[in-house]
Amino acid sequence: MKKKWAVAALLAALGQLCLAQTPTQWQLATGYRAESFHTRNLSAFALDVEKVSQGALQIQVRPNNELFKLAEIRQSVQDGRVQAGEVIMTGLVGEVPIAGADTIPFVVQSYGDARRLWGLQRPLIEKHLAERGLKVLYAVPWPPQGLFTGAPVRSMTDLKGSRMRTYNLSTQRIAQMLGASPVDVPMAEVNQALSEGRVDNMITSAVTGVENKVWGRIGHYYPINAWFPKNLVFVNVKAFEALPIPVREAVTQAAARAEARGWTMSETVATESTRELAAQGMKGERIAPAVEAELKRLGEKFSREWVQSVGHEANVIFVPYYFQR
Questions:
Q1: I need a surface site. Which of 155, 187, 214, 239 has the fewest CB within 10 A?
Q2: Confidence (pTM)
Q3: Regarding beta strands 220-222 and 230-236, do their DSSP bridges make them parallel or antiparallel, or are they unpaired?
Q4: pLDDT by residue (tens digit) across 264-287?
Q5: What Å distances lie between residue 283 and 109, 113, 154, 221, CA to CA?
Q6: Which residues are registered as beta bridge partners of 236?
Q7: Is there a contact between 164 and 178 (Cβ–Cβ < 8 Å)?
Q8: If you ran DSSP here, which 8-state letter would residue 90 be given?
Q9: Rounded CA gap, 87 and 69, in Å?
Q10: Which residues of 271-304 are buried (b: 16+ CB within 10 A; e: fewer)?
Q11: Superfamily of domain 145-227+282-323
Q12: How many CB atoms lie within 10 A of CB 322?
């Protein structure tokens, strides 16, 4: 009953605001395609905000690097050139090393693990972004990352000397550890990079493989579940605090619903994309046991390097992650 009264009071307050002022307009920049499940979730979030705020806040989602390239979005929101944005969290590792927890290989093996990691990681991400004038709204994971290759992988030597698509500092280091040459390619440009022969293989999700129609150029898919990277949605703090309190509450509530909805969407597209790869003639092959064991050894080495470089905050996440299940 109390909850119903609280909702009624919020709606009443929002109604008064709508009568008293013209709508506030926000732009939300993302580097991903309009048809991506992340972008569809952003659009649902924007509609939810407009509905709950009774039109007091309208958010226009600008996909596909339309406003800024993916690597420029965080700084653009921080500078106030756009009110809100979405990036892949590991793209922040240059300034926020703890964001790299998302790409430590073979630590997160399920969506349940990914939820626990985000619960521990979020307070630290919020603190670092707040120092930069940004407010975290929500995060949603990509499906688990598999290995896509043009030729079969029977031993680690099959990856040495190859050109591996990377998308941040962490994946660059992983490529180097595998003996491959890192080639930086944003998700929206994977198809072009493959067509031009700039990359031979990549560690990415099945949905990226489907969205870029990699079959024909990439023949093998190994579902190694290497990690679950997350996309992060955030807003400029000054823009957020300029909103009336009821509208801020509407944004926060819509963000919580977007996060829950996005995680469900991620699991759904993971299943659908794996089926589509198979329908297009790509088999989800089990990688050779010797290669799997070597990949996990490299993952352990990467983990040690990462913890040593990050220091105390790494322990804040991984001590409870491993020992407080």
A1: 155
A2: 0.88
A3: unpaired
A4: 999 999 999 999 999 999 878 899
A5: 21, 26, 15, 6
A6: 134
A7: yes
A8: G
A9: 10
A10: eebbebbeeeebeeeebbeebeebbeebbeebbe
A11: Bacterial extracellular solute-binding protein, family 7 (3.40.190.170)
A12: 9
Q: Which residue in 276, 282, 275 sits closest to 218, CA to CA?
A: 282
| Contact (CB, 8 A) for 109 and 225 | yes
The two structure tokens encoding residue 122: 């979020």
User: Helix 37-52 crosses helix 245-279 at what angle (to 10 degrees)?
Assistant: 150
Supply 171's token pair. 């994946």
DSSP for residue 285: P
CATH superfamily of 2-141+229-274: Bacterial extracellular solute-binding protein, family 7 (3.40.190.170)
Q: Nearest-CA neighbor of 75 among 66, 65, 85, 89?
A: 85
The answer to whether 126 touches 222, Cβ cutoff 8 Å, is: no
Q: What is the mean pLDDT of residues 35-46?
A: 97
| Amino acid residing at 143 | P
Q: pLDDT tens-digit profile of 100-157?
A: 999 899 889 899 999 999 999 999 999 999 999 999 999 999 999 999 998 899 999 9
β-strand 24-30 against 201-205: which pairing, if any?
unpaired
Q: Are 108 and 230 in contact (CB under 8 A)?
A: no
CA distances from 275 to 127, 239, 279, 282, 283 (A): 39, 42, 6, 9, 9
What whole-number distance in Å separates Cα of residue 269 and Cα of residue 207? Answer: 7
Residue the block writes with tokens 């896509």: 148
Q: Which amino acid is at 51?
A: K
The residue whose two tokens read 């909805």 is: 261
